[in-house]
Amino acid sequence: MRAAVFYEPMKLKVEDVPKPSVGPGEVLVKVKAAAICGTDLRIYRGTKKIKTPRIIGHEFAGEIVELGEDVEGFSVGDRVTVYPVIACGKCYACMMGRPNICVSRPTIGYEYDGGFAEYVKIPKEAVSYGAIIKLPDRISYEEAAITEPLAACLNGISRLDVKHGDHVWVAGAGPIGLMHVQLARLAGASLIFVSEVNEFRAGKAKELGADVVINPQREDVYQRIMSETGGKGADRIIVDAGVPKLIEDSLKCARKGARVVIFAGCPEGSKITIDPNWIHYREIELTGSSASTPYLHRKAVELVNNGRVDLKSLITHKLKLEDVVKGLEMKEMVEGLKTLVIP
Questions:
Q1: Is the pLDDT at 267 greater than 90, yes or no?
Q2: Dihedral through CA 219, CA 224, CA 225, CA 226, nearest 10?
Q3: Closest Cα to residue 139, out of 321, 292, 310, 317?
Q4: What per-residue confidence (pLDDT) applies to 219?
Q5: Quick check: is 164 in a domain?
């Protein structure tokens, strides 16, 4: 089969590799669509370390073509997507009900071969964890491939704890930010701000439900948010761009008792400078959001199936597997939104 194999930073080769064979408890999926994520770019550039050689790609959907012994509940021909992070169920994080931050969390596309290939083998640990999710007929493989980041966004919105009538600032209008815009509205936000310098993305934010879109290069975000909220600031802020200064700025725009969630990862070694009194006296909560769970991934699939979240409009490019490096370069150049790889 053809697969994109990562060997070292800046060396990703699409080549012939043996088609995986399944053992007991395992499942083989023929990949119909896979999506390029920012983490894939970090792996390619060498800022996220994984063992090599490795077939990368953790956002994908496809058709089951082979079942190992003892696999129950699935049939050949089932249309599926797969939650890629496998929680151990035994560490302290898992035991306190937060498997998304499992201490070990091996992941398909990092520790196991992933979806930038014609076929991907789902390990028995993932199968038994409930990571394989059947797709309703109305969801395309292309949409299903990006329900994984939508699931992560569901976790982010849960951490943000949006209440009915809240004023929410989504900082950044990439695919993640645009998902958060839609989820914030579903959660009851009455006023949604989006800050974004890219004109195409800013327009898409408006199209998907943002009330106020601010270009920070042309307008002061703090002044606009204060003006629109009567000088109080935003109730909830989620930072969807990995820019340390944006985290600092977000705290200034938060009203008393607000919550700020850091969703996007920053470059390793990043630092921020904040006045602790700003948090102390204003009782601002600053927290993070990481990954998701198979449960939330199923919820993401339901939201798309019911037409509550639009993922189709986030797909701007479709490439052949042979062009995966081009797709990673497009990601780095902030070209479009979600780029799919079709094996």
A1: no
A2: 130
A3: 310
A4: 97
A5: yes
